[in-house]
Write a structure and sequence with these properties.
α1 crosses α2, α6 crosses α8 and α7 crosses α8. The protein is α/β, with parallel strands linked by helices and 432 residues long. The chain has an 8-stranded mixed sheet, with helices on one face. The protein has a 5-stranded mixed sheet with strand order 3-2-6-7-8, with helices on both faces. The chain folds into 2 domains: 196 residues, no CATH class; 220 residues, Rossmann fold (3-Layer(aba) Sandwich). β2, α2 and β3 form a beta-alpha-beta unit. The two termini are 23 Å apart.
């Protein structure tokens, strides 16, 4: 089967990166009133999640150093629900893989699954909190504010979700997702978050916003008093920064999925899929008829959540999957469809040849194909030649190469993954 020629295009997305992360963290904390009533020597619990957040180790170290400079005794704990295979060791290991451990942070990292109840919400949802955090003198959360993969609302992923599902450990995550099945995750996150705030243990949080290049674009200390309102405002802001694939496609190719990329393995609001199996559920987002996933990220450590949202995968993925964390993560979230095994073939060419006749076009030369590294890295996109007319005149799109055959090796696999981060210039990109 003839595969289309492709071009490499660059999306010119706003670069909002903060030049000095450490200095900005210190500035934000110094200008806040967090912990103003705490005596020197107080134990501060710093909650850290498990997503692939840019500069997370630098940010966490800067927070720990700030509290130490104030004469406090900070420690770090995982606030990540059922992640890390829902074990204390696994969650500590997740943080260590991101460079967060005692040797690099200069403070203890305390990981366990013990929780305490902090009461019930008005509609009967029992809220839980990590025991060590609860027994500290104050809890500070470090979390990225962004859109959620499962629902749309004014609050999605961020500090409130971390207070609910993250702080609740495995016991809380199971309980909340069960309630969310009937009440909706938006409702559960708000209700449980408010209940946790009422415990009086939360000092506030450091909200992290990332730009369309996955750079740290904004850091802001959010106090308890206006956490809910401010998180709504920050989510609206970061949504306005969001990048998308530049056009509708018959086939979207993802070089990799992983928990370091998105909680759902792939960002559902970029790939336009539902964790429950639905196609193109999100409005104002490009539509894709088929999704082909080539691999799992090395930094997902075997967790292949999101596998089931693909229509076809390369068989190379299967032996890399660690089914224990994959099953625990998916089933705790009540999303079994997200880990179904799609049809799979031994080569990338076979995967494409299997999908091209399934998109409703008699003339396969009309099939449109796009390829990205993952749903976080959207600055560089490979597109089939037949899409060029639709891109003409779009100032944010720069075509970097002339049409050329897909870069497949003798076995029929792409020679490498697309990457912006390791390219030094447009000239280097043009040699791809």
């Amino acid at each position: 089967m003839a595969l289309p020629r492709t071009v490499l295009v660059k999306q010119h997305l706003a670069d909002r990166r903060i030049a000095d992360i450490t200095a900005e963290v210190q500035k934000q904390l110094a200008g806040s009133a967090l912990g103003a009533n705490l005596a020197p020597g107080s134990r501060i619990a710093i909650g850290v999640g498990s997503r692939g957040i840019s500069n997370i180790a630098t940010i966490v170290r800067a927070v720990a150093d700030y509290w130490k400079s104030r004469g406090m005794q900070p420690f770090i704990f995982p606030a990540m629900g059922s992640h890390g295979a829902a074990t204390a060791e696994g969650q500590a290991d997740v943080l260590a893989h991101y460079g967060i451990h005692e040797a690099t942070m200069g403070v203890p990292v305390i990981s366990h699954l013990d929780v305490v109840s902090v009461g019930k919400t008005a509609d009967g949802i029992e809220a839980f909190m990590d025991r060590q955090a609860f027994e500290s003198d104050g809890v500070m959360l470090i979390g990225r504010v962004k859109w959620h993969t499962d629902f749309a609302g004014k609050i999605e992923s961020g500090l409130f979700k971390m207070m609910a599902i993250g702080l609740g450990k495995f016991a809380g995550a199971q309980n909340y997702h069960t309630h969310a099945f009937n009440k909706g995750l938006d409702h559960v996150i708000r209700a449980v978050g408010r209940q946790v705030l009422s415990s009086g243990r939360i000092l506030g949080g450091l909200a992290i916003l990332e730009d369309a290049h996955h750079n740290t674009g904004k850091l802001e200390v959010v106090p308890v008093a206006n956490m809910e309102t401010r998180e709504e405002e920050l989510l609206a802001l970061v949504k306005s920064w969001m990048a998308h694939v530049p056009c509708n496609l018959d086939i979207l190719i993802l070089d990799e999925i992983g928990k370091n990329i998105s909680g759902a393995g792939m960002d559902t609001k970029v790939a336009n899929r539902s964790v429950q199996g639905g196609y193109n559920p999100w409005p104002n987002t490009p539509h894709f008829q088929r999704i082909f996933v080539r691999d799992v990220s090395d930094n997902t450590y075997g967790n292949a959540v999101g596998l089931g949202m693909a229509d076809v995968i390369n068989s190379r993925m299967l032996p890399k999957i660690d089914w224990k964390p994959t099953r625990i993560n998916s089933l705790t979230a009540s999303t079994p469809a997200a880990i179904r095994i799609p049809v799979h073939y031994a080569t990338d060419r076979e995967c494409l040849e299997a999908m091209m006749p399934t998109v409703g076009k008699h003339d396969l030369a009309e099939v449109t194909i796009g390829r990205i590294r993952n749903t976080l890295e959207l600055g560089l996109v490979e597109l089939s030649e037949n899409l060029l007319p639709s891109l003409a005149g779009r100032k944010e799109i720069e075509v970097l190469t002339q049409p050329q055959p897909m870069d497949l090796d003798a076995e029929g696999n792409f020679r490498s993954k697309l990457s912006v981060a390791h390219q030094e210039s447009d000239a280097a990109l043009a040699k791809h």
